[in-house]
Amino acid sequence: MANYLAIAIGNTRIKAVIFGSDRQILEEYAFTHDQLPILEAQLAGRDFAHIAIASVVPELITNWHHLPQTQIIKTCDVPLRGLYATMGCDRALAAYGAGEIYGYPVLVIDAGTAIDLTGINDQKTLVGGAIVAGLRSQFLSLYQNTSALPDLHVPTALPNRWGIDTNSSIQAGISQILLTGLQAYINDWRSQFPDSKVIITGGDGEYLVNWGLQVDIIDKNLIFWGIWELS
Q: Which of 43, 44, 62, 46 is nearest to 54 (CA)?
């Protein structure tokens, strides 16, 4: 049986998986935008019965975009109610994949370049969401927009609330304020939908969970489950 290539182009990285039958992921790839030629070279000469591409960067075109078996997925293709025109297809697909795999209602937190929250009720209708700069984006913003603040890495362990120098104050401020805000959203969602799953995805999700964010499931492949469900 021929395999199925799914590609998700985000703000920072390009991720791809190759599906076999029964939603089985056989291979996974992740590259930055400028490494697209590496991905194309690694998969050159491979035949895929179906290819699906979901992108939030329309100007980034791959070798697969114009093949006859390629499906370009847009937000309007995702069968959830109440989605708005400017909503990123990555958010829509992750929410759809989460709901279809784990059940509705569902709250999805995607912790990437941006951290976005997307809540879907049991009627598969968008309740609402929120967007804030992601962890690395917040650290980078301070570094790039000030004259003296350092370029710091995201700390693995949750810093003490009160920093005692510049570095620890930056790490404390970003991590503690972000964690508290996200947990408040989760608590509010659970008060409205007590039977809902809260699922986190994205590259920085493990940082937040290690810091104590109270979620039910970590699943890095939500967007690909959404793509699969549309195939």
A: 62
